[in-house]
Design goal:
By secondary structure, the chain is of the alpha+beta class. Helices cover 49% and strands 30% of the residues. A 4-stranded antiparallel sheet has the order 1-2-3-4, with helices on one face.
Length: 126
């Protein structure tokens, strides 16, 4: 009887391989779901920035067409810097190409650009 007591006293309680594998699968599933949530949040943030940048460029275009913004001017708003460039189009004296770029100063990248062609006023040519 003493030998049986010694054997049971030395026996360690542990998990079986199947229990460990089940726990591992559960942890990996939870981790995968968490990564998907973080990924969706990041994509939504990029989408929001892109939409805001497009709206910002459209506002600059409207200001330019109403003569509220000068040619070849730089404008900064928060972390966005806008640069406008104008150039004449070869073969079309009555048209001009206007390019507006939006830069992100935090990441040092061009977020978006807006290029349009407008008629040249006679007052602009003088």
């Amino acid at each position: 009887m003493a030998k049986i007591m010694q054997k049971t006293a030395l026996r360690l309680n542990g998990s079986t391989l199947i229990e460990v594998l089940i726990a591992l699968v559960l942890l990996l599933t939870i981790f995968a779901l968490g990564m998907r949530i973080v990924s969706n949040l990041t994509l939504n943030d990029k989408s929001h920035t892109a939409q805001r940048t497009k709206l910002y460029l459209q506002q600059i275009k409207a200001n330019y067409q109403e003569k509220l913004w000068e040619n070849d001017q730089t404008l900064q708003h928060d972390h966005l810097v806008s640069r406008m460039e104008t150039e004449n189009i070869d073969g079309f004296a009555d048209r001009r190409k206007v390019k507006i770029y939006a830069y992100d100063t935090r990441q040092n990248i061009i977020l978006d650009s807006l290029i349009f062609i407008e008629p040249v006023d006679e007052t602009d040519q003088m």
